[in-house]
């Protein structure tokens, strides 16, 4: 019986402590602003690990493939992958934009007849596909209108160029690699996104 009384007093003491000390601390602690958790999640969904781009093997394969395709590129006036893709696109949507460009290049170019035309095509396609897969939760914010318009212009230009359009896209894979790295990692490549011949 005495142990029950001791236990009851101890329990009552803990209830008093929690109500008088802990509860006011919990009620007065600041809460994060609305939407902060969502913004952080969305930001991280549009981020790739820098280590993906530090692999010399895949970088060399991509750059070599682009260089081989540029040799037979007959059109030096047009560019498929460049700053024109970012016209009216907010900086926080650039990674999403590059993800979409990579999806188009993989599906419409690298996995087409081009895979038999150049070496390393399948390896580069697999690398880009893994990047887009890693960015699967990366979504646009705001209006989608300009993103779709710029993508349509790129696809239209590629179609207008005919067979050379796909070749040009392969010849600009090094640019795509750099643009994805700059838009989707926290530490962009220095001097990236410059025009290459």
Q: Could you characterize the architecture of this molecule?
A:
The chain has 197 residues and is mainly α. Helix content is 63%, strand content 0%. It has 9 helices and no strands. It has helices at 2-28, 36-45, 56-71, 94-110, 114-117, 121-134, 145-160, 163-171, 173-184. The chain is globular, with a radius of gyration of 26 Å. The N and C termini lie far apart (92 Å). The model is unreliable at 16-42 and 191-197 (pLDDT under 50).
- Low confidence ranges: 16-42, 191-197
The largest β sheet comes out as:
none
Mean pLDDT: 79
> How many distinct helices?
9
Order of helices and strands: HHHHHHHHH
Could you say which structural class the secondary elements and strand pairing correspond to? mainly alpha
Number of strands: 0
Shape annotation: globular
What fraction of the residues are assigned to beta strands by DSSP?
under 5%
Summary tags:
197 residues; mainly alpha; disordered C terminus
Could you give a quick summary of the protein structure above?
The chain is mostly helical and 197 residues long. The protein is 63% helix and 0% strand. The radius of gyration is 26 Å and the shape is globular.
List the helices and strands and how they pair.
Elements: H1 2-28, H2 36-45, H3 56-71, H4 94-110, H5 114-117, H6 121-134, H7 145-160, H8 163-171, H9 173-184
Helix pairs in contact: 3-6, 3-8, 4-6, 4-8, 4-9, 7-8
